[in-house]
Each structure stands twice: as structure tokens, then as C-alpha cells.
Design brief:
The termini are far apart. A hairpin with a 5-residue loop joins strand 3 (76-81) and strand 4 (87-91). The protein folds into 2 domains: 2-158, no CATH class; 162-271, Lipocalin (Beta Barrel), CATH 2.40.128.270. The chain has 273 residues and is mostly beta strands. The protein has 3 helices and 21 strands. The strands form 3 sheets. A 9-stranded antiparallel β-sheet has the order 4-3-2-1-11-10-7-6-5. Strands 12-14-15-16-17-19-20-21 form an 8-stranded antiparallel β-barrel. A two-stranded antiparallel sheet has the order 8-9.
Length: 273
């Protein structure tokens, strides 16, 4: 019963927030990994996609009472509770990070109220749905309607930027240009699927796949596994897949290009037309 109540409350919030917004294009649905294609536009298949479309990059929620927290790509923190109908939106403050643990803390003080948010990278079982989310979240909130400070505990996850959910052709790897003439079939590419949290790819001769995890201002790739055909461009394929496998990157989106960068590698992709 608690789960249905929370989903109903969240659906009301989503309806209220999206009613006044222009329609957005849903993340394209990922297809088979046989080659580049233009994914069909579909309705968001799950609540996480609906949140991504509204620009939410991190979401947390809890119960007793039901509450939600959103970090948006518009540099805002949005906190809501169901019981009292509180809603507090504040500019996203600079995060402070604990030196001895993967813990972020945001503290915002405005005339409308005060928020202190702690996000710890610690698995958090959601008591209502049974899903284990990767972050444990606590919120201390004080609003004009509720001047006494209250504490809320729950679970959260990063959702990633919905613009990443697409097909990306490799253009440069560590400053070296990648051209179609280097390969017998076609240029290497990635297909990033945020809905299924997976990546499908083609490295010039072989297909591969692995897990994909959105993180704060970045992406983490799991181990890449795929076919093992003998190909003339085998050395390049090994370099490309090794650059991705098990690695975390910051990313930048600009002029239809996606740049993935870490301390070792820089990969530049162009969005398929």
C-alpha cells in the first residue's frame, strides 16, 4: 500500500510540473547492436525517464512521511513532502565532500527556508519497492510553513542527462582522428542506453556491450565484452575497448559532440544524424 501511495504522489508531482512545460522529446529507444540506426521516438517507458526529461539529474525519496528531492540541470534543489504539501526550491549550492568517505553535502539557506542534504555512496534498500539504490540520502529541512527543522531519510540515484541517450560515432581518440577508411565496415560507435543502464558498441569489426552507470557529472562503464573476430584493425579495437572498460569519465556535450575524458584518455564522439 505504501508503494502505491508513493507512486500516486509522484505521479501527481510529475503532472503538476510538466503541465506548465512545453513538450519535450523522449529519449530515443535503443535498438539492436547490429549497426548504427536512428532510434524511434517513444514515450518514456519508466518513471526515471520521465524525470530525466524534466532535467532531473539526481533523485531521492523516502517515506513516513513521503518526500522527494531532485537535483536539476538548471542548478536547483527541489524538495517536497506529501503530508504537508511543502515545496522548497533553492539554487544548488557548492557541494562539500568528506575527505575520508564518498559523501557530498549541500547546504542552502534562503528566505524561503533551509536545506541540508547529505548524499553518501552507500547501498540503500528501498523498503517500499525492494529496489537497492546506490546512495543513502538524508535531508534536514526547514520551511516557512514548518519553521522547526525536520530530518528525512531515504535512498537516491543519479539519472544522467537524457541527451546522452543516443548513438555516437567516434571521431577522435586521444587526439587521433578516426575515419571510415580505417575500417572495412564502418566507424566505431557507442549506443548509450540510460533506461537499461547499458552501452552497446561497435569497435570497427566486433560488437561489444557492458553496463553504464550515471554518476555525479560523469559516467562509469562496466567491463566491455563482445565478439572476437580477427580483423586488420585489431590493435585499434583493443585500444578503444580498453579505454572504456571499467573506466569513469567526466563528459561534455557541445555542438552535437560528446567528449568523454579522464586522466588517461579523451574520446570525442559525434551524434548520428
Amino acid at each position: 500500500m505504501q508503494l502505491y501511495a508513493l507512486l500516486f504522489a509522484l505521479s501527481l508531482w510529475l503532472s503538476a510540473c510538466t503541465a506548465a512545460r512545453p513538450e519535450s522529446t523522449a529519449p530515443p529507444a535503443a535498438g539492436p547492436s547490429s549497426g548504427p540506426h536512428v532510434p524511434e521516438t517513444t514515450e518514456p517507458p519508466n518513471p526515471w525517464d520521465a524525470l530525466r526529461l524534466r532535467g532531473v539529474e539526481f533523485v531521492a525519496m523516502g517515506s513516513e512521511p513521503f518526500w522527494s528531492l531532485e537535483l536539476t540541470n538548471q542548478e536547483a534543489l527541489r524538495f517536497r513532502t506529501v503530508a504537508s504539501g511543502d515545496s522548497l526550491v533553492v539554487p544548488l549550492p557548492t557541494a562539500s565532500q568528506a575527505q575520508d568517505a564518498n559523501v557530498l553535502r549541500y547546504r542552502a539557506l534562503t528566505p524561503a527556508g533551509e536545506l541540508t542534504v547529505t548524499i553518501a555512496q552507500r547501498p540503500c534498500p528501498n523498503a517500499m519497492s525492494g529496489e537497492v539504490l546506490p546512495y543513502t540520502v538524508t535531508v534536514q529541512a526547514r520551511t516557512a510553513a514548518e519553521p522547526a527543522s525536520r530530518e528525512f531519510a531515504g535512498c537516491g540515484r543519479y539519472l544522467g542527462d537524457y541527451r546522452l541517450h543516443d548513438l555516437w560515432a567516434l571521431e577522435f581518440i586521444d587526439g587521433q582522428a578516426v575515419t571510415a577508411a580505417q575500417f572495412a565496415q564502418r566507424k566505431p560507435y557507442l549506443e548509450l542506453n540510460l533506461t537499461r543502464e547499458e552501452v552497446l558498441g561497435f569497435s570497427g569489426c566486433n560488437d561489444f556491450s557492458g553496463s553504464l552507470s550515471p554518476e555525479r557529472a560523469g559516467l562509469r562503464f562496466g567491463t566491455m565484452r563482445g565478439t572476437m573476430l580477427a580483423c586488420p584493425a585489431l590493435a585499434f579495437e583493443q585500444k578503444f575497448r580498453a579505454a572504456l572498460s571499467g573506466q569513469a569519465f567526466t563528459y561534455r556535450l557541445e555542438n552535437r559532440r560528446l567528449t568523454l575524458e579522464n586522466r588517461v584518455n579523451t574520446l570525442v564522439f559525434r551524434k548520428f544524424d
